[in-house]
Amino acid sequence: MTSTQVQTLRRVIKEKDAAFQRHTNLEKKLQELEQQGSIRVRKQADGDIDILPIGGGEGLELVGVVPAEVPTPAPELLPPPPPPPPPPPPPLPSATAIRIKKPIKTKFRLPVFNWTALKPNQINGTVFNEIDDERILEELDLDRFEELFKTKAQGPVVDLSCTKGKVTQKPINKVTLLEANRSKNLAITLRKAGKNTEEICKAIHTFDLKALPIDFIECLMRFLPTEAEVKLLRQYERDRKPLEDLAEEDRFMLHFSKIERLTQRMSIITFVGNFEDNLNMLTPQLNAIIAASASVKSSQKMKRMLEIILALGNYMNSSKRGSVYGFKLQSLDLLLDTKSTDRKLTLLHYIAIIVKEKYQEIATFWHELHFVDKAAAVSLENVLLDVKELGRGMELIRRECSLHDHSVLKNFVTNNESRLAKLQRDAKTAEEAFNAVVTFFGENPKTTPPSVFFPVFVRFIKAYKDAEEENEQRKKQEAAMREKMLAQEAKQNDAKVQRNNKRQQQHDLIAELRRRQAKEHRPVYEGKDGTIEDIITGKPVGLVALFLGGGSGGPGASCDFGSRVRGG
User: Fold this and answer.
1) Does the pLDDT of residue 56 top 60, yes or no?
2) CA–CA gap between residue 330 and residue 303 (Å, rounded)
3) Across the beta sheet with 48-53, what order do the strands follow?
4) What does the pLDDT look like over 397-448, one tens digit per residue?
5) Residue 251 sits in a domain of what CATH number?
6) Is 368 left (phi over 0), alpha (psi -120 to 50) or beta?
7) Residue 409 counted as domain residue
8) DSSP letters of 103-128?
9) Which terminus of the chain is less hemmed in, N or C, by CB atoms within 10 Å?
10) Cis-peptide into 111, omega within 30 deg
């Protein structure tokens, strides 16, 4: 092998070892949380690990599903056997080949889904390299999708904060070397401590936190004597002026400034007093990052959801932008901005509908995303800085113990050194887990902190739940509208039937009356000269003939006609 290949091989092996170490640290953290009773780990048949929370999850311990994969050196980078004969040099690592996506043709013009696409060379090693959006398109009713989304145009603490207040007027004969405002605020602080100068200085010298509350120490840190103040106080002593003439605050500052290594002692006392609170504050934040990172990275349901979104997005953009291989997570926020033709439905609402109809198993995908809301509120950068500060504080105490025999500090180091080491390991695990999940989703860990990465999932979960609820409400409203229309139609039909029945009854009554009248007044036709017969047969007969009877009947014929026509 050439020297370049040897260097490449060493670099790859080093990276694999580092990845293996990170995975080992994560497994140790899982085992630790399982022993604490915060989670339960269950191995699946496919080698993955189910990590289930125990209880309500308020303790904020690690939960999620972490693939049980141990990185192994790539086969193509193994060194060749020794000569003779010398084997050919091993091939250098190459990026995974990207499958060319088929062009998509739609029947209608669709709105553009303005996502931020990943470049093909950014896909390798991300979640998008493991999903198949083209398979999703084969399973969906795309005609329905197009019909819905086609465009209209076709074509509380102790208050020792040194607030301003009124101080009793000093006697005129008292000497003040400190600046007036500083002296006044120091007087307020000392009164709230309730201890004299000797007691305060002794407690600081012996690191006695039982005698002085940490809030008072933190406030007193603001009054560490400056170089100019020390010079004034020393000059006052050298001049052999009476100390009794100094104001009470100046006398305190004089004794305060004489404490050996004052700044270091005050820093140590502050560190020791705040250590427990800092530990309790940082540990849940680190656990939240670890839990959220592990669960998001291993969520198979979230991966399927991204697969569906990628498929529909490519289908919508096929005629204008072409298919892409992945997208930035911030694009999930745009699902609510892409609306159907009638503006009543968004793309997210449609996704919720098809998930319920065809992919019911991923409808509750958020159950796999643990503590993303808590992780979203964590500033990992600040947490890591705080952990480093704790490390520097512990180192300061070790140096102090090596110089002087302080039983209080030695006991503190003995009791808390291992706790700090564990916190530092958790910090490293959290950083590695977060970097891994951000990279897995095609983002840059340097420009995408937890406060940007995890809120995307928080917003998406909320928007998806809202879309599901709105779909159900719309479904109920449509059902109620259908029932109302059917009721109105039935009412109209009933009214029509009633009118028809009434009309039929009237017709039947008229017919019955006619039948009775015809039966009671049946005529007997006995006309002269054929006049009655002509009337019956429809032949024209003059009115005169009708009433005069024609011929020689004369006027009396009408009477005769009337008498003959009556039915017997």
Assistant:
1) no
2) 15
3) 39-43, 48-53, 64-67
4) 999 888 887 888 999 999 999 999 999 999 999 999 999 999 999 999 999 9
5) 1.20.58
6) alpha
7) no
8) P---SS--------BPPGGGTTTSGG
9) C
10) no
Query: 416: part of which helix (H) or strand (E)?
Result: helix 407-440
For residues 379 and 286, the answer to whether their CB atoms sit within 8 Å is no
Strands (E), 128-278: none
Give ∠ CA 432-24-46 in degrees, rounded to 5.
Answer: 100
User: Three-state SS for 52?
Assistant: strand
- Nearest partner of 439 among 300, 326, 284, judged by Cα: 326
For residue 258, what are its two tokens? 């004489």
Q: Which of 357, 358, 363, 347 is nearest to 136 (CA)?
A: 358
Neighbouring C-beta atoms of residue 388, cutoff 10 Å: 12
Confidence of residue 523 (pLDDT cuts 50, 70, 90): low
Task: Answer whether residue 477 shows pLDDT above 50.
Answer: yes
Residue 241 lies in a domain: yes
Query: Which of these, 562, 533, 564, 563, lies nearest to 547 by C-alpha position?
Result: 562
**Burial tier of 528 (Cβ tally within 10 Å: 0-12, 13-18, 19+):** middle
Q: What is the number of domains present in the chain?
A: 2
Residue 313 and residue 115 in contact, taking contact as beta carbons nearer than 8 Å? yes
- What would the pLDDT profile of 339-393 be if each residue is shown by its tens digit? 999 888 999 999 999 999 999 999 999 999 999 999 999 999 999 999 999 999 9
Q: How far apart are CA 46 and CA 128, in angstroms?
A: 20
DSSP structure class, residue 157: -
pLDDT at residue 459, rounded to an integer: 97
Number of other CB atoms surrounding residue 415 within 10 Å:
10
87-122 in b/e form (b: 16+ CB < 10 A) is eeebeeeeeeeeeeeeebebeebbbebebebbeeeb
In a domain, 362, yes or no: no
Residue that finishes a domain, picked among 207, 226, 259: 259
Pairwise CA distance, residues 306 & 300, whole Å: 10
pTM exceeds cut of 0.85: no
Residue 546 lies in a domain: yes
Q: What one-character DSSP code corresponds to residue 368?
A: G
List Cα–Cα distances, 354 to 138, 149, 309, in angstroms: 13, 14, 11
For residue 178, name the pLDDT band (cuts at 50, 70, 90): confident
- Measured in whole angstroms, the distance separating CA 410 from the mean position of its chain's CA atoms is 46
Mark which of 216, 235, 259 sits at the end of a domain: 259
d(CA 452, CA 330) in angstroms, rounded, equals 9
HSE at residue 200, side-chain half, CA atoms within 13 A, is 25
pLDDT given at position 384: 96
The neighbour count for residue 442, using CB atoms within 10 Å, is 24
End-to-end CA distance of the chain: 140
Residue 542 domain boundaries: 531-565
What dihedral do alpha carbons 236, 239, 243, 244 form, nearest 10°?
Answer: -120
